[in-house]
Amino acid sequence: MIIVLTGIDGSGKSTAARSLVASVRARGGRALLVSNHAGRRVMSLAAGRLGVRLPARLADAVETVLRVGNVLLSHLRATRFDGLVVMDRHLHCQLALRRAKGLPRGRFLPWLLARLPQPDAILHLDLDHAEAHRRISARGTDSETLDDLAAFNRGYRELPEYAAFLRIDASRTAVEVAAEMDRWLAGVAVTKPH
């Protein structure tokens, strides 16, 4: 089973992914966490230190190469793993970023999405951009503007695939979010044929 987690920066994707995997393992199940990052945090920190803003198309090109490479490796690992695979981010994240930046959707990422094994579910951690900004500021490891987070939020909602995402209220505590995902997973395990 493959589950993908999506959401804007600050929504708690990585924390939720780690919690879900730990919960499954604690019950004696097999679970694997894979991350499909695109290097955005590193690039934004470097650009901030240099006092520059990368052109949107250049940033997207670098992010896309890194994200696609990570997604392909993650799917390869998933084919060799018998258990739950939780993917922290996926190609949908890059498509949402493109919309946020006003870039075209392109043909390659949708083509690749259609050919990769389809996840059993895409859990979208839904969070208001102002709360996401507060969380990002509090952790102090990266920075995002309110406007960029709002555009990213809209970018997700405007994806044609978004209607099929299972939305999780990420405004709650990490423990509450993890508990909801755990309940959802338990319900799927009961109804899914073996």
UniProtKB/TrEMBL annotation:
Pfam families: Thymidylate_kin
GO MF assignments: kinase activity
Residue ranges constituting the Thymidylate kinase-like domain according to the UniProt record: 7-178
Keywords carried by this UniProt record: ATP-binding, Kinase, Nucleotide-binding, Transferase
Domain of life the protein comes from: Bacteria
Family: Belongs to the thymidylate kinase family.
Protein name: Thymidylate kinase
